[in-house]
Automatic annotation (TrEMBL):
Native organism taxonomy: Bacteria, Bacillati, Bacillota, Bacilli, Lactobacillales
EC number: 7.1.2.2
HAMAP family according to UniProt: ATP_synth_alpha_bact (MF_01346)
Protein name: ATP synthase subunit alpha
Cellular component aspect of the GO annotation: plasma membrane; proton-transporting ATP synthase complex
Natural source organism: Latilactobacillus sakei (Lactobacillus sakei)
Reaction catalysis annotation: ATP + H2O + 4 H(+)(in) = ADP + phosphate + 5 H(+)(out)
Gene that produces this protein: atpA
Keywords associated with the record: ATP synthesis, ATP-binding, Cell membrane, CF(1), Hydrogen ion transport, Hydrolase, Ion transport, Membrane, Nucleotide-binding, Translocase, Transport
Subcellular localization: Cell membrane; Membrane
Keyword Membrane: yes
Annotated SUPFAM superfamilies: C-terminal domain of alpha and beta subunits of F1 ATP synthase, N-terminal domain of alpha and beta subunits of F1 ATP synthase, P-loop containing nucleoside triphosphate hydrolases
Site (Required for activity): S362
Length: 511
């Protein structure tokens, strides 16, 4: 087959026109060691700290230790098919995760890949997992309440949008339940929630996801899962990946609630990585920068200034204590970073007080600024009532005779404890919380038997929604207490008609 000279000439001209004289230079190193999720590579002289590196088999790692002879790399994902002698090259990027609306309702791993079997996530936006926290001038003070739906928290340790409130306690004291209930309560509150499960069993995470789905909370929630069977580097980066996903919404003027469950396991994963990288161990074998691990994460929670859109990210980190020791290394670190803590006590939990919040050790450093005017008014004396009740309760165990004033304080304390109890996954709307606390602090419940208080509360809410809907609407819309005379009259009318369960049983037995 003959080719014409003109065709050859045109082909050469086309190739000359498309010729690009720029050379692409890639810095490539060689893997000298691999094992336990860690690799070392020689030849990456210009690698940057936290830079994303690509292995010849397609796996990725992050440059962690920059030493004179080699680079220490944490491998993201499986490392069994990486061998000594493999090539590893710089990408010039730092670790990023997919972000955006497409992730809402999905369960993803710390790399942003779906693990819920519902197909790929279609988003082209990414954000680096590490980002400098907003500065002082980029923030505004926390003033808008974040309603958890739990009376004991909203009344005693209020949380504001943009706050960092630590949930701390021994294992199996209801820490995750408090966080899950708070997420469920955000339905219709214009809030996007992110639940980061670090080192939780896959079956446990599946149960939590099903709970959220059952209450319609997955419609506004992203779940980031790093299970105990996954390599330590994924547990280490999981909270940062969740924070990056939340920042995408925060910087677009939206409100975000992020739960880190729990940071004790992240600290343990980071300790494992650091020891494998031969970093010097410090107290309890943790590396020297363990405080910075959590501070640079939690500082990213903020209420942004109006110039930046006024978005917020509220963080609820969870820390597990050993035998209630909140003076241990990691708990004290995180307590000093956060704006308060909700301390859950084992003894209270096992005695049936749930949520088992210890009012004496729990505190919110934002306080009344994160409460509505109505809640501030009705919860004023609650902490005092509780603490004096605890003291008197201990004193009366000796069986001494009590005067009328002491007896009245004890009675009020018992009822306060009972009112603050709440069933699992039953967060209460703000106006219903306000009404029952108003009834408690104004003495309407003083004659109601302690065992009947939950039934009384449920009946009161139903009665007011039916017979005094205008009062409930007013509290809901204005966040202030309505005309107290009308409210007193409505509560009094219900209380007078309320029949204790014992009286109902006696009536039935007479029949």
């Amino acid at each position: 087959m003959s080719i014409k000279t003109e065709e050859i000439s045109a082909l050469i001209k086309q190739q000359l026109a498309n010729y690009n004289e720029e050379l692409a230079v890639e810095e490539v190193g060689t893997v000298t060691y691999v094992g336990d999720g860690i690799a070392r590579a020689h030849g990456l002289e210009n690698a940057l700290s936290s830079e994303l590196l690509e292995f010849s088999n397609g796996s990725y790692g992050v440059a962690q230790n920059l030493e004179t002879n080699d680079v220490g790399i944490i491998i993201l994902g499986e490392y069994e098919n990486i061998r000594e002698g493999d090539q590893v090259k710089r990408t010039g990027r730092i670790m990023e995760v997919p972000v955006g609306d497409a992730l809402i309702g999905r369960v993803v791993n710390p790399l942003g890949q779906p693990v819920d079997g519902r197909g790929e996530i279609k988003t082209d936006k990414t954000r680096p997992i590490e980002k400098k926290a907003p500065g002082v001038m980029a923030r505004q003070s926390v003033s808008e309440p974040l309603q958890t739906g739990l009376k004991a928290i909203d009344a005693l340790v209020p949380i504001g949008r943009g706050q960092r409130e630590l949930i701390i306690g021994d294992r199996k004291t209801g820490k995750t339940s408090v966080a899950i209930d708070t997420i469920i309560n955000q339905k219709g509150q214009d809030m996007i929630c992110i639940y980061v499960a670090i080192g939780q069993k896959e079956s446990t995470v599946r149960t939590q996801v099903e709970t959220l789905r059952r209450y319609g909370a997955m419609d506004y929630t992203i779940v980031v899962e790093a299970g105990p069977s996954q390599p330590a580097p994924l547990l280490y980066i999981a909270p940062y990946a969740g924070a990056a996903m939340g920042e995408e919404f925060m910087y677009n003027g939206k409100h975000v609630l992020i739960v880190y469950d729990d940071l004790s396991k992240q600290a343990a994963a980071y300790r494992e990585i650091s020891l494998l990288l031969r970093r010097p161990p410090g107290r309890e074998a943790y590396p020297g920068d363990i405080f910075y691990l959590h501070s640079r994460l939690l500082e990213r929670a903020a209420k942004l200034s109006d110039e930046l859109g006024g978005g917020s990210m509220t963080a609820l980190p969870i820390i597990e204590t050993q035998a209630g020791d909140i003076s241990a290394y990691i708990p004290t670190n995180v307590i000093s970073i956060t704006d308060g803590q909700i301390f859950l006590e084992s003894d209270l939990f096992y005695s049936g007080t749930r949520p088992a919040i210890d009012a004496g050790s729990s505190v919110s450093r934002v306080g009344g600024a994160a409460q509505t005017k109505a809640m501030k008014k009705v919860s004023g004396t609650l902490r005092l009532d509780l603490s004096s009740y605890r003291e008197l309760e201990a004193f009366t165990q000796f069986g001494s005779d009590l005067d009328a004033a002491t007896q009245a304080k004890l009675n009020r304390g018992k009822r306060t404890v009972e009112v603050l109890k709440q069933p699992l996954h039953k967060p209460l709307p703000f106006e219903q919380q306000t009404v029952i606390l108003y009834a408690l602090t104004h003495g309407f419940i003083d004659d109601v038997p302690v065992d009947d208080i939950m039934r009384y509360e449920s009946g009161l809410n139903d009665y007011l929604e039916s017979n005094a809907k205008d009062l409930m609407d007013e509290i809901r819309q204005t966040t202030k207490l309505p005309d107290t005379d009308k409210l007193d009259a409505a509560i009094k009318a219900f209380t007078e008609g309320f029949v204790p369960e014992q009286a109902v049983d006696d009536k039935d037995s007479d029949k």
